[in-house]
Amino acid sequence: MERHRHRYEVNNNYVDRLQQAGLKIGGWSADDTLVEMVELPNHPWFVACQFHPEFTSTPRDGHPLFESFVAAAMKQRENQG
Question: Is residue 27 a contact partner of residue 1, using CB atoms and an 8 Å limit?
Fold first, then answer.
């Protein structure tokens, strides 16, 4: 379970349309009623989440989203030069 501090949400009436446009639903709420995460599979690293991964991160143990972002940035840098 992740922590939230807002009242924003993806309108479920548009989920099918968003998926048809290429957006992948990466996570749902515990009760399967709200989209929690989305990603673009053909992008090097495009992830959006409805929670705050920084609330469970520490300097020595980062949230997996931060770790994957840093790994993608390092890979991008290697590919550029």
Answer: no
Residue 3 tokens, joined: 């922590």
Token pair in block for residue 49: 């989440």
Phi, psi of 12 (to 5 degrees): -60, -20
pLDDT in tens, 18-33: 999 999 999 998 899 9
- Could you give the 3-state DSSP secondary structure of residue 52? coil
The two three-digit tokens of residue 44, written as one number: 């090097």
34/18 Cα distance (integer angstroms): 14
The boundaries of the domain holding residue 35 are 12-80
Instruction: Give the tokens for residue 12.
Output: 């479920």
Task: Kindly state whether residue 17 falls inside one of the protein's structural domains.
Answer: yes
